[in-house]
Design brief:
This protein is mostly helical. It folds into two domains: about 35 residues; about 120 residues, Cytochrome Bc1 Complex, Chain D, domain 2 (Orthogonal Bundle). The protein is built from six helices and two strands, in the order ααβαααβα. Strands 1-2 form a two-stranded antiparallel ribbon. It binds heme C (HEC). The site of heme C (HEC) has 28 residues, from helix 4 and helix 5.
Length: about 170
């Protein structure tokens, strides 16, 4: 390599290193990472564990995002469960899970096979555990507006605007 070429090679290596440094050393990335987890719950570890087992056994993640995850091979346009405790309390959730026809409570615009199934057959204890746990699922403030919008669009199929009526 001639001196000129060497200089270019060194400059290239340096700029790659600088870009990498900017990318990994950037303080804003830390804030962004924190913003990736907008969900909170004050459930006790026992409750979270017990409810978590039921959610897994019943494959709620085939349709719903819970803690930001769902089964990857599924594409049911169900609303995310994260943050559901912001607008549903334990009594509502227990009632909903106990309903023979959940669509009588929350109407659906989806094909029957994608709709919320009835969990009326679960034991009272299981339904109570789920309702109690789901009611603890909240979202951080900055995310609430975004979640409200997404849920509205999932449930109605319409764009959310400032004039949109909130859905019960
Ligand atoms: C087959 C897909 C499917 C499965 C499985 C499923 N859900 Fe749903 N769920 C839905 C859909 C779709 C809705 C929206 C209402 C509708 O279209 O029936 C919904 C609505 C809900 C709601 C109300 C959300 C809101 O915005 O008020 C809750 C709570 C809920 N589901 C919890 C659960 C839990 C807990 C499980 C597991 C025990 C579960 N779901 C399993 C599809 C599903």
């Amino acid at each position: 390599m001639r001196t000129g070429e060497k200089g270019i090679a060194v400059a290239m290596i340096l700029s790659v290193a600088i870009i990498a440094g900017l990318k990994f050393g950037n303080k804003e990335d830390v804030a962004e990472e924190e913003m990736d987890i907008p969900f909170v719950s004050n459930a006790s570890p026992e409750l979270a564990n017990k409810a978590g087992n039921i959610l897994r056994t019943l494959h709620c993640r085939e349709c719903h995002f819970i803690w930001g995850t769902r089964d990857l091979n599924q594409a049911v346009p169900a609303p995310a469960i994260d943050g559901v405790g912001e607008f549903r309390d334990e009594a509502w959730l227990f009632n909903y899970l106990s309903s023979e026809v959940p669509q009588d409570i929350l109407p659906s615009r989806l094909k029957p096979k994608y709709r919320m199934p009835s969990y009326a057959h679960l034991s009272v204890d299981e339904r109570q555990t789920l309702a109690k746990y789901l009611a603890t699922l909240k979202v951080k403030d900055w995310y609430l507006q975004d979640a409200t919008k997404k849920r509205y669009e999932k449930l109605t199929g319409n764009d959310y605007t400032d004039d949109s009526e909130p859905i019960p």
